[in-house]
Amino acid sequence: MIAVTVFAGKKVAVFGLGGSGLTSASALLAGGADVIGWDDDADAVLKATSAGIPTADLRQVDWSRISALVLAPGVPLTHPTPHWTVALARAAAVEVIGDIELFCRERRARAPNAPFVAITGTNGKSTTTALVAHVLRSAGRDAQIGGNIGTAILSLAPPEEARAHVVECSSYQIDLAPTLDPSVGVLLNVSEDHLDRHGTLAHYAAVKERLVAGVQADGIAIIGVDDEWCAAAADRVERAGKKLARVSVRRPLRAGLYVQAETIMQAADGAARVIAHIGGIGSLRGVHNAQNAACAAGAALALGLSVEAIQQGLRSFPGLAHRMEQVGRKARVLFVNDSKATNADSAAQALACFSDIFWIAGGKAKTGGIASLARFFPRMRKAYLIGEAATDFAAELEGRVPHVIAGTLERAVELAAADAEAADVAEPVVLLSPACASFDQYRNFEVRGDKFRELVRALPGLVPSA
Asked: What is the rounded distance in angstroms from the CA atom of residue 239 to the CA atom of residue 258?
């Protein structure tokens, strides 16, 4: 754990006592702060109290004595309306921050030159975070990995100059980190998502941009420039005088990193050199993973790794669960778990990788539905629709893609497996890439993906992937 000493002797309120909130409270206590924790869920308060964290209803405390409110990232800061604790804090001129901000302040106090890679983007940030950490570790470096990827940042080992922290940052976490200052900041892409929490796409994009705009003076911003929001962000970051590496998977660049013929290239001063080959790496299949790999390579270069070490790390990357995860094969049929695809843009990345798809989709729909996926309809042999979105998705597919409303994942896997096995195609793929959130039927996309994996592995004759 990282003991947060920067609030030693000060009173700090912590709201949201889930995983990251409990860790934040414990880290602050370990660093000498006077902590008051609270949550809207009485069970969470009881759990925190049992863990030795002082608790009190923050409606009843004297806010003039509080130095900061540490807010869990899942609690609304601005949209649709600020949480009641935020309103109380603002009325008392108390700063509202999150655990990423606590880490940044403690890093500056302890080891300001410690490597700190912060990664964000609408899609691909978890894979890129895991990939950067894997490449560093495969080269013998001490790489701590955490943040939005699932491990609270303050539960990691403390910053040191010989230790890198590789941290996935959601837009919610960036919003709560006003002095976010990584040594390497990575912005992969921006597309419509989380508008219920940010109001507009422009505001959402601006929050994402803060991560790269804040890179420390001697650091570098690595920005994918294949969408208009990020391309504009790169221009602004460059004009602000930050060191910048642009990344593209669509076209060669005169300066920066780009992918051509499954090869990551680095261009500078009118010349280009090969950084790594990614063709044939199953865990990095698809254009979206090419972008992830190129950005990860840029981060590794910035941290001093050789091209040989980068190539070795990319080649040995096992991939992440629920992100284009190859679950196994039954005869010719490949089963792929892409449960992380909770919006159409993310699903598009998986659909682009295969030609004969038996597609399992649906759940709690995001804005825009699947209209943007029409270009992939010719690749679909049949769709199996589940959850709340099934009826709307069926209407979109009507007359264009054979489909059935399966309702449940269990029924969808059963039907898709049988149809794919009977199909007269060379390489049928049963692909769970829902283009939807999971919350209508499952607690999160991980639970949904775990269920898919369980169902697939129970099929007679399945050969699991290694």
From this structure: 21
Contacts of 312 (CB under 8 A, 6+ apart): 138, 139
Amino acid at 56: A
Q: Give the total residue count for the chain.
A: 466
Tokens of 214: 């804040």
Helix (H, G, I), strand (E, B) or coil at 270: coil
Q: Where are the domains of the chain?
A: 11-97, 107-315, 325-464
pLDDT of 131 over the 80 cut: yes
DSSP for 295-363, please give it: HHHHHHHHTT--HHHHHHHHHT----TTSSEEEEEETTEEEEE-TT--SHHHHHHHHTT-SSEEEEEES
Taking the model in full, what pTM does it have? 0.85
pLDDT, tens digit, 9 for 90 and up, residues 345-395: 889 989 999 999 999 999 999 888 999 999 999 999 999 999 999 999 999
Query: Which CATH number does the domain 325-464 belong to among 2.40.10.270, 3.90.400.10, 3.90.190.20, 3.40.50.720?
Result: 3.90.190.20
Which pLDDT tens digit goes with each residue over 15-71? 999 999 999 999 999 999 999 999 999 999 999 999 999 999 999 999 999 999 999
Query: Distance between CA atoms of 127 and 283, rounded to whole angstroms?
Result: 10
Residue type, 402: P
pLDDT at residue 198, as a whole number: 56
| Token pair recorded at residue 274 | 């090969």
Beta bridge partners of 96: 69
